[in-house]
Amino acid sequence: MFGASKIIKTRFELDSQGCRLRGFILRPQRTGRLPAVIVSHGFASCTRDTKKYARVFVDEGYTAVCFDFCMSGSGKSSGSSLGMSVLTEKADLLHVLDFVKGLDFVNPDHIILAGCSQGGFVSALAAVEREDEVERLVLYYPALCIPDDARRGQMINAKFDPAHVPEQFRALFVRLGAKYALDAQGLDPFREICGFSKPVLIVHGTKDKLVDISYSRRAARDFPNCRLVEVSGDHGFIFSGFPQSKRATVEYLRSNH
After folding, report:
1. pTM of the entire structure?
2. Comparing C-alpha atoms, which of 218, 185, 189 is closest to residue 204?
3. Would 61 disulfide with which of 2, 52, 158, 195, CB 3.0-4.6 Å?
C-alpha cells in the first residue's frame, strides 16, 4: 500500500539486563504516529534475517523495529550466550516494547509483536504478559517445540541427559549454558501463550524439518482468535515459503481479523 514511500532507517541502543541491546528502525516517510511492529529473530540469527519480514510491514505503512537479542551468540548486541534463554529474550523484548511505546512517531495503541522461530515463541510469551499493550501477534514457524526438546535432551544438534543438563553445550555454532535448557524445561508452551485473546497469525511451512508443523496446528486450535496459514516452505523460508508468507501477512494486516 505504501511501498513507493521513501524508507527512513535509524539505529538505536538500549540497556537490557546489564547488556547493550542494538537494533534499527525502518519507517515510511509519513507524518503522524504510525502503527508499529517489533520483529524478533530466531536462534543463532540476527536482524540480517528479520529485515525482509520488517519490509513487508513497512510497505503496509508500519514502523518496523528489528533488534538483536542480548546474549544470543550472534548479531551486534552484547552479552555472553551462556546466559541466554527464552526467558532472558522475553525480558529483552519487553524492554524494546517499552522503548517503542515512547517513540513520538509510533501510535502506542497499535503495536504488533512478530517473531521468527525462537523469536516467535518469545514474542508469544511477551504478548501474554503485556496483552493490553499488544494489538496483534504474528508468528512465523514459531519454535514451540523448544520445551519438549529440552525435556528430551535434544535441542537442534545438541544431545544431553535432560536430568543432568551440562553446564555448557553447543547447538549449531552457539555456546549455551544450562540455563537455556533448564528455563525451557519448566515451560508448557500452550499453557503459557494461548491465553492471549487478541488476533494471532501463524505462518508455518509444511516442509519444516526443525519445528514440526503440528505445534502450530495445536496452537491455532488453542488460541481463542488465530489464523494459521500453511505454506509450502522449509524452516526459515530459506528455500521456499517466503512469498506465500508475505502474501498471508499483507492479507492479514488488511483484514479486520
Report:
1. 0.96
2. 218
3. 2
